[in-house]
From TrEMBL:
Signal peptide stretch: 1-21
Source superkingdom: Bacteria
Keywords: Signal
Annotated region described as Disordered, given as residue ranges: 67-102
Taxonomic lineage from the root: Bacteria, Pseudomonadati, Pseudomonadota, Betaproteobacteria, Neisseriales
Listed name of the protein: Uncharacterized protein
Start-end of Basic residues biased regions: 73-83
Amino acid sequence: MRQKYWLSGLCALLLAASVGAQPWQAGPDNTPGWKMMTPEERSEHIKTMHSFTSLEACQTYLKQHRDQMQQRAKSRHMRSLGRMRHDPCQQMKAMGQFKPAP
């Protein structure tokens, strides 16, 4: 019986580790203006986000993207985008997706 619980715990731990190791993914919950973007823009945004090798470049792009989506929302008489719950650039940094500076 004890072995069964130990094995279940090990499986749960391995599953949690594999989920946590997944690369950051853009989506409606973490991308400002996702619903206002065309499928092509979404694809390009994902490609761009995964191309960064530094936190600074990621943050610069994300600010530009957010400003663009804010303008789009304003032109469509929509409410503002509000605050992001999580900073994707910081999440990507924590996952080791940026190369260390030489």
